[in-house]
Each structure stands twice: as structure tokens, then as C-alpha cells.
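OP here, attaching both records as promised.
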Amino acid sequence: MLIVGLLIVSVSQVLCPPRIAIVINNDQIEGAIAAWQRRYERPATALQRQQIKRQVVQEHVLVAEALRRGFASLPPVQHRIQQLTEIVGSATSEQNGALHAQILANDTLIQRYLTDALKADLGHQLTVNTPTSATIAAYAQTHPQMLVGQPMRQVSQVFFADANTDAGEDSNTDLLAASDTNVEAHARQARQTIIADQLSLPSAVALGDSFYGGHQLAPKTQLQLSAVLGEPVAAVAFDSPPHRWSRPLASPYGWHLIRVNSVLPAIVRPRIEVEQAITRTLMEASHAKQLEAAIDDIAANYSVSIIADQSLTPPNVHTNPEAP
């Protein structure tokens, strides 16, 4: 009987291997919620808090899985580790090893890269079928807005980097809030200068910081502009008269002054353009659904605990370059 029992345990461990443990400090979740509320200047609803919590948990799982699959050896990750190691200046290999582990666990840029790299890798493995003509026609009937081109606006902006964007998890909340206020005040002062001196766009841009999306954006729909500057900024852009600089607007990236340069009204779209747009929409939705399912499958291999004790830290996740 003992032998049979051991065999059953062994088989169950093969068929249902133990899940990998991840411990998340609740302060990280509350910090993410607080950051969201600062950005959008309103309290998060219960549903939004749950969504933010899910996002934080998912990010931890994806980072852990990326490390397990050996993504830490990717050149951008190694370059970032080397860069930070040189700044700190550790001497011995043992000290460097401990520092590298700390960097992998805490550096925001590395974690973002690992998450994006894993999502891209998962995405490349998905198969998205092209929708049939009947599916496209049915979608058009239930989404008549697709038959008319969405209104677009061409926007210029001056950007002011938010000191909180890459702030660490242990950053002082009061100091971050004060820094946020200082950036907003700087943006307000810049707006006054731009208007009073009637500055050209290049001169106005020089008062702020560089922005990954540029300072003179191509014409975009409200949804497209939301993807670049965030929903609140896009909403103001589509509710503002042309040729006027806005008040400072918060986004997940920092603060923006925007000016609408031109307004392009909605027009009836050619049939081929409608079919192509619907095809893209359906395929993107299918891809996103499959990707979310793939991430859920990965998450099923992890056991996530959320703790309130700041003295506890997540366990190390062992990397395995040979993992699938």
C-alpha cells in the first residue's frame, strides 16, 4: 500500500506540478490605484480598483514567466543591467549577482520590457483567421458607425515629463504628489508664456520635454488620440475649439498642453475601406481574446499571495532558458 501511495503521489506531481509562488505586497496595488487616481483626478470605482489589481497581478505573473523562460538573457535586459551595475559600481562577482537579482526584481524598465517581450512571443504563436464576407456584413449591420469615417483632429502638444512615471514602489507618496503639483505648475507657467509671447510651436515645445509620440501629431480619431495621449486628454482635444492652448492635462505619462490645429469632419467611407476596417477590428479582437486566454493559462501555473507586511519580499523565481 505504501508503494501504491507513493506512485499515486509521483503521478499526481507529474500531471499536476506544484504552482510557482508569487508574493505581491498590497502596497504595490494601492500605489497603482493611487497613481491612477492622481492621473485622472477622480477616485477609482470598485470595478476600476479590481481591474487595476488584476493588472498588477498579471504584470507580476508575466515578469516571472518571462524570467522562467530565460528572457533575462535578452540583449536589452542585459544592457540595462550592465548600465545600472556600472552606476552602482559593485566590485565582487557575488555582489554583482545580488545586485543583478535586485535589478531584475525592481527595475521598472526591465519589467516593462520583459512583459512586452513575452506578450509579443505569445502573440506570434497565435493563429487569427480572416473573417468571412458574411461575418463582415453582419458586423457592419450591427455597427453602422463603421460606415462613416470618424471625425479627426490634428493636434500639437507641449509635454512635461511626470517625475512619478518611473518612480519606484517605495517612493514617498507625499513627495510624489508634491512633485506632481510642481510639474503641473510648470506647465501652467509655460502656457502663460506661450500665449503672452505668441510662441511658435518649436519655441513652445522647447519649454517642455521630449515625447515618444512627437509634438505635432498626424490627424487622429478620438480613439486613436486616446491610445497616444490617454482618454482624458483626447476627450478635451475633441471638445476644444481650434487654435487655443488647453490647460495642463494629466496623462499616464505626465502633463500636456494641447492645441487643435484642424478639424476633419466625418465622411461616408468607401465600401472597400469599410470592409478592411471591419476585418482589422475583428482580427485584432480575436488576437486580443486569444492572447488574454494564453496569459490566463500561464497564470494558472502560479499561486499569487497578496500580503500587507512590508518586511516580506517575493520569493526568487528561477530562470530556465530551456523552458518552452
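Record two, same layout:
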Amino acid sequence: MRPRVDYKIYSELFDRHDNNETPTVKGRVITRDSSLLLPEIRLTVPKEKTYMTTVSVAPDGTVRLSR
């Protein structure tokens, strides 16, 4: 049996390009059985990676998100 696998998801505001608005990052994880919403995060500091969530895949293929 395979072990559980965890994937940490981060976002990064690379450059503002003279735009002063604070971007919000949204997303989804599409699985064979469902679709899971990633938590929305606001990126405020350029060039800083911001943690979003951890995607865990169980040996039986079950997928879950955790913070």
C-alpha cells in the first residue's frame, strides 16, 4: 500500500506592475470524485510566498485539504 502524500500549496505576488490593488488568489483542486475549493488568500507583499493549504492524498485516493 502506498503512503499518504501531502502537497503544500503556496502563492506568490511576483510583481505589482504599478497596480496598487491587493490581489486575491482563488482556486480548486479537481479530483476523480469531486472538486475542492482552495481557501482564498490576499497577497500583500511582493516576492513573498504565502501558504494556502495542504492537499493530502490518502492511499485509497481520498483527497482532503487542511490548513
